[in-house]
Amino acid sequence: MTGRFDPFAVLSLDDLRERHSAKWRHYPADVLPLWVAEMDAPLAAPIAEALQRLVATGDAGYPGDTPYREAFASFASDSWGWDPVVTRTRAAASVIAGYTDALVEAVPAGGTVVVTSPVYPPFYSYLQQAGLTVRESPLDANLRLDLGALDEALAGASGFLLCNPHNPGGTVHTRAELKAVAQLAARHGVQVVSDEIHAPLVYEDSTFVPYLSVDPRGIAVHAASKGWSLAAIPAALLVFGPDAGAGLATYDSGKHHGPTYWGAVAQTVAYSEGREWLADALASLDRNRHLLGSLLAEHVPAIRYHLPASTYLVWLDCRELGLGDDPAAVFLERGRVALNSGPTFGAGGAGHARINIATSPAILTEAVDRIAASL
Ligand SMILES: Cc1ncc(COP(=O)(O)O)c(C=O)c1O
Predict the structure, then answer these.
(1) Which atom of ligand 1 is nearest to the CA of 96?
(2) Which of 101, 130, 159, 180 has the fewest Cβ atoms within 10 Å of its own Cβ atom?
């Protein structure tokens, strides 16, 4: 690894404790935080420089002619061999806003949207707040899609919010699985919305399959927010498949918030000039996912570790520790280390915890020491 840039080696623990973001401020200062999806890395240099230029010139207006959609289309083509149709993409304020708006437009009021649990908690909360009913279809024991369960859950539903790749745990759905999803959705007359925010973070030994490459009826939501850790300045792109029914027209007839100008600029630069940084970050995350496996095997072998195929949001099966439904609460109280609580991810979350490995090996090692010390 000589000479490679490691984005997670730049900031010390003291530097990180100067941050005022949720990850570093939600818990008291004696807690080591490895929970919410923020990276312990500086911004990619091209993004930082673009933002500095905006600040320096006071260029802080409404979104102008930033080639956000074109930059994404070029990234998608080069990364995944998929060519989204630029005229069928729409910019949204954030991924959550994008998938919520798309589903509200596609699903009748009060209608049912299926999610595959355990899954990112805002898959429930925002849809419920928007008046939709969320129905769970559990993943199998290996965190893969259970197509039989999905078939049953889709009966009578109007929407399916797919997480591709899946958070938590990083499952990368295969082309065969996604084709089966598309067939089920067509049979049940269900609109699939695929949240693909984690797509840039797929490790080399797996292949990301864009949902729209198997289902022309689908709608996908993309963003650079996770790959380049840009939660502070969100933006997202909805991509409507060529046969997404009335999808695009219905969406266009509604009122939707778009991204801020700075959000669109940051993500445009990420897709076009941030690719080397992303490759470096992924190489460090790849090292970390294996490091976590060996640290747990050595210090807490009772935790079943699921090696992620993508993302830095790793799912830990702690049931053998006998700590009850919420082991993260025990790690926090006794070990002063913050992970996400498994039960917040819905059915299948009890006895589990999610850990964020987008940090330095030293912090990861300290976290596992604290987990071990809490037992
Ligand atoms: C699957 C998934 N979707 C959406 C988001 C949030 O996206 P945004 O901040 O653009 O709403 C996250 C953040 O971690 C996520 O994991």
Answers:
(1) 11
(2) 130
